[in-house]
Design goal:
Strand order of the largest sheet: 1-2-4-3
Helix content: 40-55%
Distance between the termini: 85 Å
CATH architecture of one domain: Roll
Number of helices: 6
Structural class: alpha+beta
Order of helices and strands: HHEEHEEHHH
Oligomer: single chain
CATH superfamily of one domain: Homing endonucleases
Largest sheet: 4 strands, antiparallel
Radius of gyration: 26 Å
Length: about 160
Amino acid sequence: MPGRPRPSARTVAARTAAARTAAARTASARPGPARPAPPAPARRRPRLDALAAGYLLGLLAGEGHFGGDGRQPQVTLRMHVRHEKLFRWLQATFPESRLYGPYHHGGRDYYQWMARGAFLRETLVPLLAAHRGLLDDYVAGRFERMCASYGIPDARAAVAPRR
């Protein structure tokens, strides 16, 4: 029957010995609690200056979506691929966020930037809340509804008075 050649007896013996050695190592391993994984190296990002903060706030006010997936809140920014440089800046400035794409379907070509989890709660929400007075009523309302829907308590506490 044509096909793959049969391994030699020497090859079979070597494979069998290797399998026995691996099994012996596994069996002789001491049972006990698994070692915790080493901590991930801290990603340090440069301090956000006033211009960068204002730029981000403007992007989110004009193009951002404040919502969630039913389990966790998220802020999404979706724009055409011609704005790739902007998305790369977001990715470099906020490495805790996620950049998806480029997507090409339905006659549309776009990137999607998302903020979720600890980054959203510990960085983005306090930034938006601290500058709440600069947001128009519609955007501020969307932001507050997201925070209320997902139980983000510090959003209202950190809200600056309206100007």
